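Posting this for the archive.
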Amino acid sequence: MTMQTLLVANRGEIARRILRTARAMGLRTVAVCSEADLHAPHVREADQAYCLGPAPSRESYLAIERILAAARETGADAIHPGYGFLSENELFARAVEDAGLVFVGPTPAAIGAMGSKIAAKRLMVEHGVPVVPGVSGLDDAGFIAAADAVGYPLLIKASAGGGGKGMRIVRRPEDLPAALEGARREALAAFSDDQLLVERYVLEPRHIEVQILGDGQGRVVHLFERECSIQRRHQKILEEAPSPFCDEALRERLTSAAVKAGLAIGYRSAGTVEFVVDGKSGEIFFLEVNTRLQVEHPVTELVTGLDLVRLQLEIAMGRPLDDALAEVRLGGHAIEARLYAEDPARDFLPETGRLAAFAIPAIEGLRVDSGVEAGDEVSIHYDPMLAKVIAWGPTRDEANRRLLAALRGARVHGVTTNLAFLRAVLAHPAWRRGELSTHFIAEHRSELFPPAPDPTLAVRLATVAHALALDEARAILPDLPLGWRNNRFADPETRWVVGDQTLACSHRALGQARFLTRTGGVEETIEVLHRDPALVVRIGDRIVKAVITQADETRFVHLDGADFRLELAPRFSTGAERAAAGTCQAPMPGKVIAVRVAPGASVSEGEALVVLEAMKMEHTLEAPRAGTVAEVLVQPGDVVAGGQDLIVLA
C-alpha cells in the first residue's frame, strides 16, 4: 500500500509530533485548522494547510466531510487522526477508507468494538480478561436499584468515551440520582451518547496501562506498561514507564491480558489497554482499550527507543510487525508531565489568555512536545494543555531530578499554569518512593498546595527593572543622571498588586547600577550586574538571578524556581471596584449549560446555581452565601466572559 501525502486531522502538539515523523520518512504533509488556529505552529510546519471552518470553532476539527474535502484538494492519500477529536470515531475511519484513503489507525470494526465500554467489557469477559464488577445498559431507576448489590463507592462512566467526561464517583446513595443526571448530560454533549455503566470503585486504585501494537494480520505485541495514577478530574497529569509498582510477575499478567485484548478485536496500529490495579491485593481489572495513539506515548518511546508514529505509518502501509519487536527490552526510566493552563488552587479550573513567554530549558535527556509558542493565545475552545515535558534517565530517580530541574527552570508567563503544582508532586517523598494511587492528590493536598512564596524580593526586582525601563524611555534630557528627580524629599514609589495584596516599593538611584529600595519599612541596596536576558543583581553577598517578562501593566517574575505575577496598581481609583460577595460570576469564559435557580428562590451557601461548560468540561458554580435570588442574568446556551455576573443574590 503506497503513501505519499499525509493529512493530520488534529491540532496542537500531537499534530506537530506526527508531522515531525512524517517529514523524517519523506512524506508530504498537510495540516488542517480552524480560523482560530490560522497562525498556530502546526499550520506553519506542514507543507500545505487547509482551513476547515470559522473561528472560534472546536467543531471544525469534527467536520468529517470538510476533512475529506481537504484531503481531496491537497492530494493526500492518508489521514492520521492523532488523539481526541475523531481519532476513535468509527464513522470517520470508515468514511476515510470508503473515500479510498489510508486511515492511520485501527480498523473501523476494532474502533466500533471498543467504542462502547459496555460491549467492550462483555467481549473481554469472553476472552478471559478480568473486568471490574458492575452493571450497564440500565435507566437511572435501574442503576439506583442495582447500586447496593454492586456496592458503594461506585464509579459512573460514559460508555462511549473517556478523558474523565461523564465520570462521577458516588459514595452515598443520596448522591446517586444527581450524579447519574450530570454524567448522562456530559456524556451526551461529549460523545452524542448518554449510555452509562456503573462499576465498583476500587479503593486503592493504581492506573496502569499497556502499550500494544497490532499489524492487522493476526499479530499483536506489547511494549510494556505505563503508570498513570497521578490524575485530577480523572485525567492524567503525570505518567511514567515502567511502573514502579510492577514486578516481573505483575508485568507478565498485565501484558498477557493486554495482548489477549488486542487479539480479541484483531487490532491494527498502536493502541493502549488500560487497567486499574488494586494497590493492596495486586488484582488487575480491564478498563478499556484506547484505539489510538495516547498522549503519554513519549515515555514508551524513550524507554524502548522506538518511534510509535513511524510504526503506525508502516503498519498503515501494510508492513507486518518485525520479529525484533517481540525482543524489545526496557531501557532506563521516563516520566512525562503535562503542562496545563489551569489554576490548581481553584480546583484546576482552565485558564485563558496570551502567552507572554514560553521557554523550557534544554537539559540532557529532556524532550518537550508543545503545541504553543510565546505570543500564542490560549482560548476557551480547545484543551488547555500547553506542552508535555518528558525526561529520561538511567534510573527513576535521575529521570525525576531532570524533569524537576526542567520545570523549575521553565518560564511560562501570561496565563496561570500548573507548573508549581507539578514541581510539588515531583518533589514529594511519596512520589519519589513510588507510593501512588489515583487518590494521590487528595491524600497529599496540604503538601501539594503550599502557601504562595513571599513576593517581597520579586517586588523589589520588578521595581528596579521598572525604574531602569522608565529611565531608558526618556525622550528628553537624556544627559540627566539615572533616577534624577526635581523633588529631593520623597523617593518614587511603585505599587504592585500581587494576588490579594498590594505591596509598595520605593527606590532611590545611588549611581548607574545601584538602587536603595524600601519595602514594608525595610531598606535593601541592589546592584545590577547584568540585564539581558536575565536580571542579575547583587544584594549584600548574594547574587540573585530573575527573568522578568512585561505584558502591558503586568510583570511576570521567574525567581528561584517560582513564578510571580505583579500588576501595576492604578495611581487613582477607577471606581470599577465593587463588592461581589453576593454575585455568582463565571470563573472563565464558557457556555451556560443549565441554570438551577429562578428569581425569588431561596438558596443556601454552596447550592448549585449554574452549570458552565468550558474547555470540554462541565463546572458547577455554587452560591457564595445564603440568600434570595434577585436576578438571573443568563440562560442556557449563552456564551459568557470570564468574570461576568450570572446570578445576583439579594
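The chain has six domains: 5-104, 133-200, 204-331, 332-450, 456-474+490-568, 583-649. The chain has a mean pLDDT of 91.
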